[in-house]
């Protein structure tokens, strides 16, 4: 007697990070401002969850909840990011800052934030980190020390 076994492969249910879902309000890919010039880039909930983990690993010691411990006047809030020179309220602006940290007014190198070279964090990872910071600035309640919408 021959026995036939049929295996049906199914992909696991996609689990969305609770913080990303609840506070960043992302359950499907979203388009974020890439360059301040009208270009956008799509980021999945998984991308933002990875960005959150990168933030927790590399940034949270100085930027708890989007604040800046060394200078509380300069947070990672959306208005503050937009007011920087150059503006940091888009993915590329945040990446440019991380690659070469400058003071808020752009007049000198910043010694408070570590430079993040491509050899340390490749482009794909730094984009996810920047996307997390940008989306948190847009949506996370209390991010940067202010109530968010």
TrEMBL record:
A single GO BP: photosynthesis
Pfam families reported for this sequence: Cytochrom_C550
Subcellular location: Membrane
GO cellular component terms, semicolon-separated: photosystem II
Cofactor dependence: heme c
Keywords, comma-separated and alphabetical: Electron transport, Heme, Iron, Membrane, Metal-binding, Photosynthesis, Photosystem II, Transport
Topology of the protein relative to the lipid bilayer: Peripheral membrane protein
Protein family according to the UniProt entry: Belongs to the cytochrome c family. PsbV subfamily.
Protein name: Photosystem II cytochrome PsbV2
